[in-house]
């Protein structure tokens, strides 16, 4: 997408409310709400849902409980009332851009066509800050500033987005977390030190930081328990809801492992396979061999399409 368009979106939405609460499986209620809102009277017959791409969502405990009270059809109002959990985790969403229109090294930018991406950043809230401060002055220990993270907040994850107003379709280029990957690596090292006999009040040198072993291990375990189970679905649902509710897109594409490797010119190590296979399927994306037209407008992509006719993306409509 053009940098001017991305800047206009950020300027228009930057003052909007950015607090984003998430609980496990919230995306299921969200997807069904989107579906109901597009049906006559805001109601969807349960029998039809069981024959649709949304059938798997109906087996989730929270949604099964709603269905038990709704009878033969489920409506947006019933879903909205139940869209809450006392144990939800709060995040802060921010917007940024990634890439440059004139940069030729697309292998570094990892964009599927020339231009920039809009970035939706999933940032920690004050709940996390209380645990993080116990490590001391370690700002930046888990952040890689060569990636599209916030400079004002601690970014748990981000989604890179490409949009095309003309066709009304969008592409989720990637979702990724540096923070949890670094935390997992640190926890492994901390456990090695503990098994070697190091005391909890000893220190571990990690990059250019000295971390207190006991408190650092407590922090790693807190993130593994609180954030690791939900980060990917929280990030993907934030991206889908943003594209649909804020920007009005209904046709959303998401990379498969093969299409991401091909169109983003990935070399070397690849992201976790589950992010581009299991995760989109959980969100009711379906594989499609039809690439969006705005990607095929690029000559290099058309050539790749001809050379690799079997490569599919995921599609949610």
Q: Could you name the ranges where pLDDT drops below 50 across 5 or more consecutive residues?
A: none
The average pLDDT is: 91
Broad shape: globular
By DSSP, the count of extended strands is 12
Sheet with most strands: 8 strands, mixed
Radius of gyration computed on alpha carbons: 21 Å
Fraction in helix: 40-55%
Order of H and E elements = HEHEHHEHEHEHEEHEEHHEHHEHHE
Sum up the structure in keywords.
317 residues, alpha+beta, 3 domains, eight-stranded mixed beta sheet, two-stranded antiparallel sheet, 14 helices, 12 strands, 21% strand, globular
Give your account of this protein's structure.
The mean pLDDT is 91. Helices cover 40% and strands 21% of the residues. By secondary structure, the chain is an alpha+beta fold. It is globular, with a radius of gyration of 21 Å. It folds into 3 domains: 3-22 and 88-176 and 232-316, no CATH class; 26-81, no CATH class; 186-225, no CATH class. The strands form 3 sheets. The protein has an 8-stranded mixed beta sheet. It has a two-stranded antiparallel sheet with strand order 2-3. It has a two-stranded antiparallel sheet with strand order 8-9. The chain has 14 helices and 12 strands.
């Amino acid at each position: 997408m053009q940098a001017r368009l991305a800047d206009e979106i950020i300027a228009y939405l930057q003052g909007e409310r950015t607090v984003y609460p998430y609980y496990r499986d919230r995306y299921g209620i969200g997807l069904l709400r989107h579906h109901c809102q597009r049906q006559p009277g805001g109601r969807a017959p349960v029998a039809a849902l069981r024959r649709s791409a949304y059938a798997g969502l109906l087996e989730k405990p929270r949604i099964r409980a709603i269905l038990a009270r709704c009878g033969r059809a489920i409506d947006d109002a019933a879903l909205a009332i139940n869209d809450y959990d006392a144990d939800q985790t709060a995040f802060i969403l921010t917007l940024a851009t990634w890439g440059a229109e004139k940069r030729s090294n697309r292998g570094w930018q990892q964009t599927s066509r020339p231009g920039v991406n809009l970035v939706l950043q999933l940032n920690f809230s004050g709940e996390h800050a209380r645990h993080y401060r116990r490590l001391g002055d370690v700002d930046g220990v888990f952040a890689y500033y060569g990636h599209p993270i916030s400079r004002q907040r601690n970014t748990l994850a981000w989604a890179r987005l490409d949009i095309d107003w003309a066709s009304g379709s969008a592409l989720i280029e990637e979702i990724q977390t540096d923070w949890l990957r670094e935390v997992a690596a640190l926890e492994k090292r901390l456990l090695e030190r503990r098994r070697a006999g190091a005391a909890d009040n000893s220190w571990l040198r990690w990059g250019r930081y000295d971390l207190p072993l006991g408190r650092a291990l407590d922090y790693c375990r807190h993130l593994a328990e609180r954030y690791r189970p939900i980060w990917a679905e929280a990030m993907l649902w934030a991206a889908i809801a943003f594209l649909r509710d804020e920007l009005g897109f209904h046709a959303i594409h998401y990379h498969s492992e093969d299409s991401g490797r091909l169109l983003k010119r990935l070399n070397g190590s690849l992201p976790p396979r589950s992010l581009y296979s299991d995760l989109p399927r959980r969100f009711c994306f379906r594989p499609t061999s039809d690439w969006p037209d705005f990607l095929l407008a690029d000559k290099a992509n058309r050539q790749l399409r001809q050379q690799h006719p079997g490569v599919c993306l995921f599609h949610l409509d």
